[in-house]
Design brief:
Layout (H helix, E strand, L loop, with lengths): L5 E7 L6 H9 L4 E5 L6 H5 L2 H18 L18 H24 L4 E5 L1 E6 L2 E6 L2 E12 L3 E3 L12 E2 L1 H6 L6 E5 L3 H12 L3 E5 L11 H13 L3 E3 L2 E9 L2 E8 L2 E7 L1 E4 L3 E3 L13 E2 L2 E2 L12 E3 L10 H15 L13 E4 L5 E5 L2 H6 L4 E7 L4 H6 L5 E7 L5 E7 L7 H9 L4 H6 L9 H9 L2
Parallel strand pairs: 1-2, 1-6, 2-3, 6-19, 8-15, 9-10, 9-15, 10-11
Antiparallel strand pairs: 4-5, 5-6, 7-16, 12-13, 13-14, 17-18, 20-21, 21-24, 22-23, 23-24
Helix pairs in contact: 1-8, 3-4, 3-6
The structure holds flavin-adenine dinucleotide and nicotinamide-adenine-dinucleotide.
The site of nicotinamide-adenine-dinucleotide has 27 residues, from helix 6 and strand 20.
Length: 464
């Protein structure tokens, strides 16, 4: 075999589902080809998702903080209606993104066994692929492949969805101004995060959600509290709607939707469709292999192997859950598996995540509903962050902690926290559910005072 065109492992997609496996396999001595269609390593998470959206949130949160400084004995003049230098925010974003992409590429290029190629890969048979870069074509053979091409925004089949001024989440990440008004179609993690970011920056925001509530799969009590918070901050949240059409052009749009049998309209300068994402299989050449997929994702077994022996898939391409850290955990597990090492494939019952709403909503393990659906007999111990010392000191004593535990052995199977700072509580939460700690074990740990994490011990000790 030609060593220039033949690889131990071909990895398609340089996001969190592809790059970690590429590096781990190359570090272990495998000859690996990593192909990325974009212009840098990092995927949706780095260029259009996790990182840029949190960069925007940081600016929005700082603006909000400045506006509340008077409550902390620091009255500043003219914080009300403070303008936002949006081009400076976008420049800061580009700076962070390019620095991170350069760092990832430098690390990848330092590994002798790893070839990184920027181009589009397409499978041509179960053990071969073609890579197209500009006008050039290169054919490669491989022993194993990992497909990690992620997901793309799902379009809405309604009139006006393809109007030039109607954006998806990538369009919002690239937007050149803070809109006066913004209508978001979809109240999932993207809709909620964007709603609060732009509302904090001064936009008049409407969220139109088809389901009975925003953030359908998360803890219902916390989603309800967050929904109240959004409404209290002037965001219009409509649930149970059926969006019918988008009209308008340039800077003025009208969204028509039905709600409880009545037709309503909302006017907005910018409309964004953020109604879910689906696996990115287009042009991947899956039809030349036995790999099977449907609209939810590529079919895989417990070792993330597809129906084509030797070809694996990870991350958003496999479907829900769609999180960067989940994609990375899968990627590293596939690498270990291919190296013949014991691999712990990630278990959804142990996943953790944070919705970067305001306040943050963190979750690890099962919700109460998911535990019941799994046939577990569970109870919930709750803590109200209004009485919490740290939350009171921070000036935002709002939110709830909910520990879902099994009634038989008092093991905690789910941790759900809505409080500003919840993101940093999820490390402990992930360990609690991953290792099945009991209420008594968590209660016995000494949590420092005054911190938000104290609530874990207090809630565990106070459970019936
Ligand atoms: C607005 C937004 C905010 C988000 N925020 C968070 C967050 O805060 N936390 C979190 O955990 N998750 C977040 N996510 C989800 C997260 O971005 C994804 O779950 C994660 O990026 C999935 O990683 P992946 O590697 O599977 O796919 P991707 O990151 O999408 O990477 C796939 C890569 O494959 C490349 N590719 C596609 N086709 C080909 C081809 N034929 N040849 C070569 N390369 C190809 C693409 O260019 C892309 O770089 C967010 C997503 C969005 C859209
Ligand atoms: N902080 C994070 O970890 C984070 C942040 C953003 C996105 N993400 C990930 O990215 C993925 C995509 O996020 P998303 O929010 O687009 O998807 P989602 O599928 O999680 O939510 C989409 C929402 O849109 C609603 N919807 C669907 N069709 C609709 C319609 N016609 N009209 C109105 N509402 C409609 C759905 O009911 C749902 O509530 C998610 O899987 C999520 O895990 C994660």
């Amino acid at each position: 075999m030609d060593p220039n065109t033949s690889y131990d492992v071909l990895i398609i997609g340089g996001g969190p589902g592809g790059t970690p496996a590429a590096m781990a396999l190359a570090q272990a001595g495998k000859r690996v080809l990593l192909v990325e269609a974009g212009h840098g390593l990092g995927g949706t998470c780095l260029f259009e998702g996790c990182i840029p959206s949190k960069i925007f949130r940081e600016t929005a949160a700082k603006r909000r903080e400045l506006a509340s400084l008077g409550d902390f004995g620091l009255p500043l003049p003219q914080t009300e209606g403070m303008s936002v230098n949006w081009s400076a925010v976008q420049t800061r974003k580009h700076h962070i993104l390019s620095g991170r992409a350069q760092g990832a590429l430098a690390k990848a290029r330092s590994l002798p066994g790893l070839d990184v190629v920027f181009g589009r890969a397409r499978l041509t048979a179960p053990r071969s692929a073609v890579i197209e870069t500009g006008g050039e074509r290169r054919e490669v053979a491989f022993a194993n492949a990992l497909l990690a091409t992620g997901s793309v925004a799902s379009p809405l089949p309604i009139p006006g969805a393809d109007l030039p001024g109607v954006l998806d989440s990538t369009g919002l990440i690239e937007i050149g101004f803070v809109p006066k008004s913004l209508a978001l179609i979809g109240g999932g993690p993207i809709g909620v995060e964007m709603a609060q970011i732009f509302a904090m920056l001064g936009s008049q925001v409407t969220v139109l959600e088809a389901g009975p509530r925003i953030l359908g799969p998360v803890d219902g009590v916390l989603a309800g509290l967050l929904s109240e918070r959004l409404r209290g901050e002037g965001i219009t949240v409509e649930t149970g709607v059926s969006v019918q059409a988008i009209e308008g052009e340039g800077q003025q749009h009208t969204v028509r939707y039905a709600h409880e049998g009545q037709v309503h309209t909302v006017e907005a300068q910018v409309v964004a469709i953020v109604a879910g994402r689906h696996p990115n299989v287009d042009g991947l050449g899956l039809e030349t292999t036995a790999v099977q997929h449907d609209r939810h994702g590529v079919k895989v077994d417990a070792t993330l192997q597809t129906d084509e022996p030797g070809i694996y898939a990870t991350g958003d391409l496999v479907g829900n859950p769609m999180f960067a850290h989940w994609a990375t955990a899968q990627s590293l597990a596939v690498a270990r598996h291919l190296l013949g090492a014991p691999a712990a494939f990630p278990n959804p019952a142990h996943n953790s995540a944070v919705i970067f709403s305001y306040p943050e909503l963190g979750m690890a393990g099962l919700t109460e509903d998911a535990a019941h659906a799994a046939g577990l007999e569970v109870a919930v111990a709750e803590y109200d962050y209004r009485i919490d010392a740290r939350a009171q000191i921070s000036g935002d004593a709002f939110g709830r902690l909910r520990l879902v535990y099994r009634k038989d052995d008092r093991r905690i199977v789910g941790v759900h926290a809505l409080v500003e700072g919840a993101a940093d509580l999820m490390g402990e939460a992930a360990l609690i559910v991953r290792h099945g700690l009991t209420l008594e074990q968590v209660g016995a740990a000494i949590h420092p005072h005054p911190t938000l994490t104290e609530a874990f011990g207090l809630t565990a000790l106070g459970a019936k």
